[in-house]
Amino acid sequence: MFSPQRRGAHLLIRSAHVLDPRSGLDERRDILIRDGRIAELGPAGGLPAPGDVELMDGSGKHAFPGFVDPHVHLRTPGQEYKEDIQSGTAAAAAGGFCAVIAMPNTDPVVDDAAILGSLVERARADARVPVGFLASITRGLRGEELTEMAALADLGALGFTDDGKPVRSAGMLRKALAYQRLAGGVISLHEEDPELSGDGAMHEGAVSARLGIAGIPSVSESTMISRDAALAAYENARVHIQHVSAAESVIALEQAKSAGVAVSAEATPHHLTLTEDVVRTLDSRFKMNPPLRREADRRALVDALRRGVIDCVATDHAPHARHEKEVPFEEAAMGTTGLETAFAALYTELVLPGELDLEVVVERMSAGAALYGLPTPRIAPGEPADLALIDLSATVEVGAAGYVSRSENCCFHGRSLHGRVLVTLAGGAVAFREPALVEAELAR
Amino acid sequence: MSIPRHLISIDDLDRAGIERILDRAESFAEVSGREIKKVPALRGRTVVNLFYEASTRTSSSFELAAKRLSADVVSIRSVGSSVDKGESLKDTVQTLSAYDPAALVIRSPHAGAAQLIVAWTSAAVINAGDGKHEHPTQALLDVFTLRRRLGALDGTNIWIVGDVLHSRVARSNILALSRMGATVTVCGPPTLIPRDIEALGCESTSTLDRLAEADVVYALRMQQERMRESFVPSLREYAVRYQIDVSHLRSGQLLMHPGPVNRGVELSAAAIDSPQALIGEQVKAGVVVRMAVLYELLAGTPVMAVAA
């Protein structure tokens, strides 16, 4: 993971409700952070405050292990008009994320050591939270020739993906899976059969029938998951399935997992909380790939996330400029931003109505780290300070005060969500403070 | 009763709204019978027609409708215009809106285009076809034509036959006809019937076996390119299974088509020329129904009342 060297925080968070599902911690504590590490967890209000630490009132707020997003598009290099490493990681910090993994479908594609090397340098200069990178599986995402996977892995690539596109050829994917034995890293897959998807722009079903928009059927995704799980089994490879969207895909995943395939999977907050119904508005903010599907699919995803069939939450944060979205639905770019709203959306739409427990959401929000071999954030003495301080009772009017991201194509725009991120610590440093908090401090 | 500010979808109209437009169209039909076919209803107001797709009957009937209401009309086609030079829809609409039009009629190859531009203009927006989504004025003129023949549509069986998947006419008609009390069945090759189309409130079938149940047979245009895309193996096989010929039509059944017709594909020449075909009446209805839509949207509301 790459980010600038920052001064470690010296901080005492008083009486926050610490919830770290992995360690079973679920009670109010004082958290003392020194030099960017958690020095001590004490009884609420019980730790003495050293003179050289900043005091922060955590009462009524929750402290969670920092979130880790294994799927973001930071758009550098080449599409900085949508986002860049600085703005994208700032958006991540604003959403409580302490680390993100960036996708390689940039312009040019991250398919070569020189490009990855310059990205690493850029992240070391600009990143607000540590960034990891995936490189592409095939050169130019063309699906024709493998990248120098071993060299890319040596430079720090956590894995490989042609995300944005499937690896169409089973033969090509098989070679990549075999080559993984040399290169290491996870092979992550955007699963979609281009023949079945055609020129589809939304889920194929009742709403696409109503709107006359070509549909992307669920089987476009699930058949490719089945194919690739079989290939992974044959090559004894480790694969990760990106942005699962359909109930059929959950079945395919369960079959693969029960057969012992080394497969993991992610789902996005938008697929977990929204359905094709919102597309009736033809608002291009609801256009993404894979598309929002039926309520039955959404429920299957939530259930799979609860049971661990889907291992983690990933936002697929996909910023696009206004002119790319202010066009008719079929013409609009695919994707929604998601970093700033991920936790609040899941908390408001799933935890508050009782569909998922808070512990499950908190655990899945950082479970992506281990899938890519990264350390999992923990709130425990000796651990680096990677945590999010969140006020669950405070609301966020999404987009009302603009976005930290350079882009505004957020599918939760205009919603009132519960769960406001107040402070994010990433890699031991304060990466985000809620603007109102900063104002309060200035006034003091 | 509700007449919306814009006409984007048949869903913008309840049954009373549809009837009000059709009643208005009847009164304009009376005017159309006179030697001087103009009324001064929209004198001094501007109607902009913005067509991003080739169109003969829709664009000409909108133009004529606006002129017969004495509006000033500007018609823009994508070919040879700034649209052709890559200007965005937003910029084009904002530019045209600077002329302060009362109505903006838009035809676009993309679903949702009409709805999208509502935010960029103060004009009333009329959807003249957006992608494969809707074509509400076509459905209104079809209902108008049928109402003249049948009186009420309540309890009638209407079959829409052909390429429903790619048809905005089918979608608007399913909504409009069922809103007027008809039972709608769509029929066509399984590859050209959208999955879950029943959610629109119609039935679906893939053979003409029960066609005799229909009071009205509405055939859709079958395009050559569907064959290249393998939706149907050949136009010959399509014609054998789905072409409406006089031999299919029982007496009293009415035949409709939105035009332009592929003779010998979806309809036989004999069917087109038969007295049961209403195709010519549909075209005639186009002008008066579009006059009625313009009138109701622009002049029919008290806020927008036209000074004498």
Describe the structure.
- The complex is a heterodimer of chains A (444) and B (308).
- With 444 residues, chain A is an alpha/beta fold.
- Chain A has helices spanning 85-94, 113-126, 149-154, 170-183, 194-197, 206-211, 218-235, 247-258, 269-273, 295-307, 322-325, 342-351, 358-364, 368-371, 435-443, and strands at residues 11-20, 25-34, 37-43, 54-57, 62-65, 67-72, 97-102, 131-135, 159-161, 186-189, 202-203, 215-216, 238-241, 262-267, 312-313, 387-397, 416-426, 429-433.
- Chain A folds into 2 domains: 11-63 and 382-443, Urease, subunit C, domain 1, CATH 2.30.40; 65-371, TIM Barrel, CATH 3.20.20.140.
- Helix content of chain A is 31%, strand content 23%.
- In chain A, the strands form 3 sheets. In chain A, strands 1, 2, 3, 4, 5, 16, 17 and 18 form an 8-stranded mixed β-sheet that branches. In chain A, strands 6-7-8-9-10-13-14-15 form an 8-stranded parallel β-sheet.
- Chain A is globular.
- Chain B is α/β, with parallel strands linked by helices and 308 residues long.
- Chain B has 2 domains: 10-134 and 285-304, 3-Layer(aba) Sandwich (Rossmann fold), CATH 3.40.50.1370; 136-282, Rossmann fold (3-Layer(aba) Sandwich).
- Chain B is built from 10 helices and 9 strands.
- Chains A and B meet through α6 of A and α4 of B.
**What structural class do you assign from the helix and strand content of chain B?**
alpha/beta
Number of strands of chain B: 9
Name the CATH superfamily assignment of the largest domain in chain B. Answer: Aspartate/ornithine carbamoyltransferase
User: Largest sheet of chain B, described in full?
Assistant: 5 strands, parallel
Query: Separation of termini of chain B?
Result: 25 Å
